[in-house]
Amino acid sequence: MKINKLGNTGIMVSRMCFGSLTIGPLQKNKTLSESREIIAAALDGGVNFFDTADLYNNYDHLRAAIQVKKDVVIATKSYDYTATGVRKSLSRALSELGRDYVDLYLLHEQESQKTVAGHWEAIEALMVEKQAGKVRAIGISTHRVEGVYGANLFPELDVIHPLINLTGIGIEDGTAEEMTAAIHQAKKLGKGIYAMKPLGGGNLLSRKQASFEYVLNLADLDAIAIGVQSVNEVLYNVKKFNGETISVDLEAAVSHASKSLHISNWCTGCGECVKRCKQRALALVGGKAQVDQKKCVLCCYCSSACKDFCIKVI
């Protein structure tokens, strides 16, 4: 596994970052034992970089697996905008991970220069924690082109975690080309860049090969976070990142693994996905979209209608 320097932070990270949302309670809800096995496979494959968040509620999953290997890099995130809030969230992360520090602490889903400025109290608190050795680098995650450009204006932010993929699905305010231009500017400024959603939250699985080729050829990315839910997916992704041949059996095991449509709880009930679904597998129930898995064929047409990127395939 290739190891890269994360911008100017001095932190060395594996090119593949383990996206832990999928194994946590918000999605597949793997047991601690199952998570330990999956993460162990990633560690064996040379992955040293793990992404989580306060929202994911899965610090215990990571702690159970990384106790055997202390020199891993952990990124976490929170929506806090006050000093009190961010210190509380950081304290929780340190306690539940069983660590004295986290490598990266990001402000979750920032939208622009204005939202970064609106979180300045939290940033100042993180800068103090960085001086104290409890955080090694700070930054933002974003689904927006303007989020990247906004972060570029603040030298205090070391790292950016942007959404980028082949079709640009999930980018809220632009195209994949516009996002890569913003990322390129960030890279020239020395920001550490690790991308998210290379398979579009599972919506690009039908274009998996092209999607991997696209993100792996983006030279400005120090690392790419990808969600996994099984040992086979870890083995597959490690081989993809390493440019190794994938056996017919492993390809079949990953391709034929059970998948289902998942609608995140921040759905606003706009109904656009329901209109788009030709299988009539979606309906509005209690003001939110719900899926009838028996009718869903995972065509993913609905996801392109969701402006809030609520729809994933897991």
Tell me briefly what this model is:
The chain has 314 residues and is of the alpha/beta class. It has helices spanning 32-44, 59-66, 83-97, 113-118, 120-131, 145-152, 176-188, 208-216, 231-242, 248-255, 272-276, and strands at residues 3-5, 12-14, 16-19, 49-51, 73-78, 102-107, 135-142, 159-162, 192-195, 223-227, 261-263, 282-285, 288-291, 311-313.
What does the model show?
- The mean pLDDT is 95.
- The chain has 2 domains: 3-255, Alpha-Beta Barrel (TIM Barrel); 261-313, Alpha-Beta Plaits.
- It has helices spanning 32-44, 59-66, 83-97, 113-118, 120-131, 145-152, 176-188, 208-216, 231-242, 248-255, 272-276, and strands spanning 3-5, 12-14, 16-19, 49-51, 73-78, 102-107, 135-142, 159-162, 192-195, 223-227, 261-263, 282-285, 288-291, 311-313.
- The strands form 4 sheets. Strands 3-4-5-6-7-8-9-10 form an 8-stranded parallel beta barrel, surrounded by 5 helices.
- The chain is an alpha/beta fold and 314 residues long.
- The radius of gyration is 19 Å and the shape is globular.
- α3 links the parallel β5 and β6.
- α1 crosses α2 (59-66), α1 packs parallel to α9 and α9 packs across α10 (248-255).
- It has 11 helices and 14 strands.
- It is 35% helix and 19% strand.
